[in-house]
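User: Hello, can you help with two protein structures?

Assistant: Certainly.
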Amino acid sequence: MSDIRKPTEEITSAGPYIFADVLDYQCLQKIVVTHRIDWLIHFSALLSAVAEQNVALSMKVNIQGTHNAIELAHQYGLRLFIPSTIAAFGPESPRNPTPNLTIQRPKTIYGVAKVHTELLGEYFHHKFGMDFRCLRFPGVLSSDTNPGGGTTDYAIQIFHDALKHGHYTCYLGPHTRLPMMHIDDCLRSVAEFMELPPDLLPQRTYNVTGDSFTPHELGLEILKEVPDFKLDYRPDHRLIIAESWPEVFDDSCAQRDWNWRPQYDTSGMATAMLSDLRPIYQPEPETNHPLVASAVA
């Protein structure tokens, strides 16, 4: 793993960690050569809502960083994975369902950069035979990290606030439907996709998803385990972004070509998130062992 940020002990204990700046091509070259890299998995990006607030920086990170990753893969013969997103689609795209191949025309700089990535990667594949691979992800639910500025991040923050405050104010509308997936499904999809031999992939970019839900539907799932939970709404600029994105993601091409199947539906995602976060906000009370208590007495 690599980043420009100082890692936590949990990250460094999980495996090797090195400094890498996606905008420094020579730094990336040194890493590839020194560590004899064969696969490059390039996740670095400014997410949708944050990117809209800093377009210049997002163009550097999301476009120039991608150019560096593609050039590295081309120069050193790497298998390259770069994720795309539901943000690669726009209001002219069919929303329910959104097929793998359709008009895109996104209206955010994040989405524009992702379409650029898809087309550039596929160009290098067809022109030079580069092993480029891309999965379009929906919103991804994970308890491991805090929300990072994406439009779908309400579906993470809602669990934190439900357990900590018993209340959440959502910046989308109650019936704003978006596709989502659990982080376990997300990571498994990348692993399964990357391990496939190149000749088994008839295309290079695929939709993958878990389930689609609205804030209201997710709130009902939380109520099953947090009975006093309250949910209200105060839509902001992110609602406009969300309403230009797919409501239901069609991942039938991935299911057909490499047998992709999600394991988490809406209920499963909610249960997993609450289970993972509950020890943080509602730790079990410490109890004295009966033998210790009697000895002290």
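That covers the first. Now for the second protein you mentioned:
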Amino acid sequence: MQDLKRLKSVEEFEDNGIIQSEVNILHPVHKQSSEFTYHTFGMELISDHGQGKHVIANIQKGGLAEQAKLRENDELHAINHLDIIHWHHDVVIQQVAAVSVEDEFTLSIKRMSCFGKRKTVPEYLAVVVKCIIQGDNFRFEFFAYDDCIDKSSICDIQTNATPEYYRFQNITQDSYLKFSGPRLVATELVEDDKESFTFSVTRFTGLDSSDGNTVYIWVLGSSHKQSYVSVLSTQAVGIQNGQKYRLKNRKISKPDSRFFFVHKIGLQRLYLESMVQPNHYLACSGSKVFLKSVASLERCINDSEVTFLFVPVQKSSSSHSYRTVASSVHICPPSESPGAARELREYQTTV
């Protein structure tokens, strides 16, 4: 990130995969109004999409960011505890403004601190911004606390050596999930464009050390480039470019916006629950694909929007062609008892 200060214009930032802009929040006086007025947060954010970093810069003297004890070169890695590492810069800026309508919101920060002459270690802080409104007047209060980002207890991870290919069809619609540029959409299958409907699936099997149950996780990627289905906010999903996920010591160190817990009820019925947003499931209505909040896994049974059929396909080694195949895979069905909701089970798919 040492080259960031030498870049001058927005165009130069974009050409280098780096974007910089000011961070704003919704003005407290207008929170209940249809007219939106924004209040500067007193800092800028630099996003390096190649490295997956969102770095705070140009903190204004006396501004809210300085009052919150934020520092230049702090890395913003979560908003209201939602991992934003793989988010696009514009989505991060919009999310900060969106959460500011709440009475308080939390920014999770990674800060490199010096110990001794040469040693630097990462320090993780959660900065809470609280707005207090009194009549037509308002003020902000801030407090910070240590924030451990190791919120995932999944260990003993195993993964498939080679990716597998699937298509995903909504249970009640004659539509399939499709890569459409930076968007994920649902539409009828087009014979001449089957590649856009085919997902490269990386499967992870692990143990949840908090309850001893086996969990099953899928990462849905493009079949021909490093693009992944990612959670963008509490309701939005989209396509984000990024490097292949690498495990450290067979453990997931923190929730990842590309990770979905896999559940099954009945033959071929599939539910995909976001790891970073528990109880939120991949859903579609018409052509729109989004993240839907469902109170419990049992309620997914009667919810057609979150229910998908998955169809295994085989990719030709000599061309970008695919054919439907029958396959036996492992899936994570919910159990009748809540304590074993992600027990691993093998079943046969028929296509």
